[in-house]
Amino acid sequence: MDSRKKDKLLCSQLQVVDFLQNFLAQEDVVQGLDPLASEDTSRQKALAAKEQWKELKASYQEHVEAITGALTQALPMMVEAQKKRAQLLGALEELQAKKRVATERLRTAKKQWQLQQEKHLQHLAEASAEVRQRQRGAQQELVQLSQELGSLRQQAGQKRDTLHRHQTFLQLLYTLQGQLPFPEAETELPQMLDLSKDKPQKQNPGDTIGEDRSMPSKADGPQPAGDPSSPGLPEGQQHGKGT
């Protein structure tokens, strides 16, 4: 603003100088034509130039005063504007510093989050692999147990068939002898056979094996001692035959 006002003042002064130069040049031309007329004309022009000079001077003074007043009012505003500019620059630098810190924190947080997600995914993958491995092991164990259970059921069926044959043989022997030394066995054994036929699935394989191992002892146990040629006869009858 200060340089602009100075330029305007300088322009006004140059206009005054140009006017005076033109005026003097015209005076020289007029004086060369008619000295008397030129003197009156010169006086009139000098008076006009003087008046114009006064007007220009007054206008110049007004402009100077206006510029001075404007500068007087503008200087505090300019100082205040400079202070505000400095404050704004400081605030801008502070904001930029905070922005850099926030950006760095965001980058660090994002990196940590990515690492946590990778660890979590890795942990899930490991857990899933472990679960699949356990599932395969459980399936293999289940298949093995199913095979063992089938084998045990087959063995139990064979034992039951053997027991049934032994019981049939014993009943035949007892029928031939005409007596039942163990009448309670005749009622218990068919009941056990019926229970084993009705509920083969609920029996424990260990109990079935134990039962199968213990049952033949009853079938083999009641054979009376005596002559090997007649295993089904009691001892008294064998002696009777001998006598």
Automatic annotation (TrEMBL):
Q: Which residues form a coiled coil?
A: 78-155
Q: Which taxonomic lineage is given here?
A: Eukaryota, Metazoa, Chordata, Craniata, Vertebrata
Q: Say which species the protein is native to.
A: Gulo gulo
The record ties this protein, via InterPro entries, to: Zwint-1
Please verify whether the record's keywords include Coiled coil: yes
Q: Which Pfam families match?
A: Zwint
Keyword Coiled coil assigned to the entry: answer is: yes
Q: Which UniProt keywords apply?
A: Coiled coil
What residue ranges are annotated as transmembrane? none
A cellular component term from Gene Ontology for this protein is:
kinetochore
- Name this protein carries in UniProt: ZW10 interactor
Q: Give positions of region: Disordered.
A: 189-243
